Amino acid sequence: MSTAVRTKTMTLIQAITDGLGTMLAERKEVVLMGEDIGKNGGVFRATDGLQEKYGEERVMDTPLSEAGFVGAGIGMAVNGFLPVIEIQFLGFIYPAYEQIMTHATRLRMRTMGHYTVPMVIRAPYGAGVRAPEIHCDSTEAIFTHMPGIKVVCPSSPYDAKGLLIAAIEDPDPVLFLEPMRTYRSAREEVPEGKYTIEIGKGKKRLEGEDVTVISWGAMMPIALKAAEDMKAEGVQCEVIDLRTLFPIDRDIIAESVQKTGRTVIVHEAHATGGIGNDVLAIINDTSFLYQKAPAERVTGFDAPVPYFGFEDHYLPNEKRIKHAIRKVMMF
To answer: Among 186, 272, 305, 316, which one is least packed by beta carbons within 10 Å?
Structure first.
C-alpha cells in the first residue's frame, strides 16, 4: 500500500532551513560554517535553531574571513566531511575567489580523481531588496566559467530544498545561489523529509507555442507574470526555468526553441558576459535553422547595481519582458 507524501507550506528560506536540517539529521558528516550562522541563525535566518539542535561542532560560527573558512571547508571536504558554507551575500564571495578557482574546482583533476571536494557554498544574491553596495550583485557567470564547480539557482521553495539536498550529496563543489528577493515572497507545498532534484535539469514552468522565455532565480516570477499577461494579446509563451546554470540543460532549451522558433532570455546580471550569452550559443548550436526571429535578451545593464532610488530601473521588469516578446513576435 502506498503512503501519501506529507507536505508543509513553506517559503523559499524555510525550505532551505528544512533541507539543511534534513541533512544534518541524516548525515553526521554534514557541517555548516559561516559568519553569524550559529546563535544568530544567519543574516537571513536560514540556519535559525540549527546550532541549538545540533551543537556548535556541526553549526560553526566563523571569523570574518571568506578566504579562510572557504579554504578550511575545502580541506574538510577532502577529508570526509560534507561542509555547507554560507556566504552572507554573493558580493562577499570575492575574497574567496582564489580558494574556489585555484583549489576547489581543480582538486579532482589535480589528483587524477583520487580526491573530490563535496562542498556546498550557499550565497544569497540579486537586487530588489534595497541592500547597500556589493550586497546585490548577480555575478554568477564568473563561476560558470570555472570547470569543476556546479552552479545551482532555484526559484521556488520545492526546488530549493530538493536541489540543496542534491548539492550536499554531490561529489563535487556546488555554488548554491539563493534569490533573496524571493526568500519570503511566496509559499509552496514542500514534501517533508528527504527528496532530491537532479542537478543539471531545467523545468518547464508554463506551456506555450509562440515564444520561449528562459530565466531562473528571482526573475522567474516576473517572467511568468509577463508571459501570463501576453495571453491577453493572443501570445502563448513557454517559460523555461533553467534551475542549474552549470551544467545548463541544453536539451530543454533546444526542445522548446525548436517548437516556438522565438526566444526571450531574462536575467538580472549584466548583459556583457552574462549566462544569457551561453544560452544564445546553445540555441545557435542546436536550433539555428528553427528560428523565426533573432533572440532577445532582457538583462541588467553594464553598470554596478545602483543605489536604492535607481534599483528598480536597473532590474528587468514585466514591461521590458513584454516589449521583448512583442518584438520577436513582430519580426
So the answer is: 272
Length in residues, the chain: 331
CB under 8 Å to 31, separation ≥6 — which residues? 57, 58, 59, 60, 76, 81, 82, 83, 84
| Domain edges within the chain | 7-191, 203-330
The answer to whether residues 36 and 69 touch, using CB atoms and an 8 Å cutoff, is no
Exposed e or buried b for every residue in 301-331, given b needs 16+ CB within 10 A? eeeebbeeeebeebbbbbebbbebbbebbee
Cα–Cα distances in angstroms (integers) from residue 128 to residues 17, 132, 258, in the given order: 22, 11, 33
Q: What is the pLDDT of residues 263-272, one digit of tens each?
A: 999 999 999 9
The maximal CA–CA distance of the chain, rounded, in angstroms, is 60
Distance CA 44, CA 87 (A): 11
Residues with catalytic function: 135
- CATH number 3.90.550.10 given to 203-330: no
Q: At a CB cut-off of 8 Å and minimum separation 6, what does 240 contact?
A: 202, 203, 204, 205, 212, 213, 214, 215, 252, 253, 256
Do 286 and 256 touch, CB atoms closer than 8 A? no
pTM of the model: 0.96
C-beta of residue 176 within 8 angstroms of C-beta of residue 163: yes
Cα separation, 267 vs 189, in Å, equals 26
Class of domain 7-191 (CATH, top level): alpha beta
- pLDDT tens-digit map of 257-297: 999 999 999 999 999 999 999 999 999 999 999 999 999 99
Q: What is the DSSP letter of 71?
A: H
